[in-house]
Structure formats: structure tokens, C-alpha cells
Design goal:
With 162 residues, this protein is mainly alpha-helical. The protein has 7 helices and 2 strands, in the order αββαααααα.
Length: 162
């Protein structure tokens, strides 16, 4: 595959500048707005899922199969847990939101969903502090981390047996 090169007459860069006119119609492209800087990820970011947690649960229960069943149930209940939390926050029901987020945090810790458990702990602090707007703002991140956690559990632990 080859590209034909055209001689640079100095107009190409002007045509591509943010405030260059479009098609002579007097329209112009607004200047690019720089994206907000993302916070730097910690050098030692927590893993999405820590496999040792499920192994430890299997040892505590004296049954790796029971631990795997717990993880399978956790995955199946994800949507319900999230919906319960979202509904409680939408209704500004602090008691129900606290109950839902504690359930999410504890069960996530048990299956090794480290990042989701950390996020749930942050949401818990917001609810306990009466910061329902802040708690609601965290819901999108909770949904993303939750889906990622379920995907990782299903991929790593082959939760769906035939």
C-alpha cells in the first residue's frame, strides 16, 4: 500500500489548524479543548481480582467447590446488587444504600474483587457522610468495575460449568 505525496505548498497546515475556515462558508472549527488530566495511577495499583481470596475462602470452608459456587452466585447476583444500590441512591434512601453497598463490599472482598471492594468502601464513606450526590456519582465507576470483576472471575475461574 502506498500513499501519494503531494508537495507542501504551506496551505496544508493552515487548512488543518483548529481555527481554519471550512469550505469557504465562513464556518470555523472551535479550538481544541484540552482533556482534563487524569490522575496518575498508583505504582502499585490493586489487582482487579486477587485469586488468593477465593483460594483462602476454599480453605476456610474446607471446600474449593463451595468457594467456586459462592463466586458463581456472586456473579449471578451482580446485576441485582447493582440495581438495589442504584435504586436506593436514586431514592436518597441512606439506610437502603448503606445496606446495599455493605453487601457489595463484603461479597466483593470474599471473592477477591479488590478494586470493586475499594470503590464500594469509598461509596460507603459517602453514604455514611450523607453525601448522596457524591455516592450517586460513583455509580458509573461501580458499574464498570463490577462488570470487569465479573468478566475476570468468569474468565479466570471458569464459573459456568456445563
Amino acid at each position: 500500500m502506498s500513499f501519494l505525496a503531494a508537495p507542501d505548498d504551506g496551505e496544508a497546515s493552515a487548512a488543518l489548524s483548529p481555527d481554519a475556515s471550512l469550505g469557504g462558508a465562513g464556518l470555523s472549527v472551535p479550538p481544541a479543548v484540552p482533556a482534563p488530566a487524569l490522575p496518575a495511577a498508583p505504582a502499585t495499583a490493586a489487582p482487579l481480582v486477587d485469586p488468593a481470596a477465593l483460594q483462602d475462602l476454599g480453605v476456610q470452608l474446607d471446600s474449593p467447590a463451595v468457594a467456586k459456587d459462592f463466586a458463581r452466585d456472586y456473579a449471578k447476583m451482580w446485576q441485582q446488587r447493582y440495581s438495589t444500590l442504584a435504586s436506593a441512591l436514586a431514592g436518597s434512601d441512606e439506610v437502603a444504600a448503606l445496606d446495599a453497598v455493605l453487601s457489595l463490599k463484603t461479597s466483593s472482598e470474599m471473592v477477591g474483587g479488590v478494586r470493586l471492594a475499594q470503590l464500594a468502601a469509598e461509596l460507603e464513606q459517602a453514604v455514611r457522610g450523607g453525601e448522596m450526590d457524591r455516592a450517586s456519582a460513583l455509580l458509573r465507576d461501580v458499574a464498570e468495575r463490577g462488570s470487569e470483576t465479573i468478566d475476570e472471575l468468569q474468565f479466570s475461574y471458569v464459573l459456568w460449568d456445563s
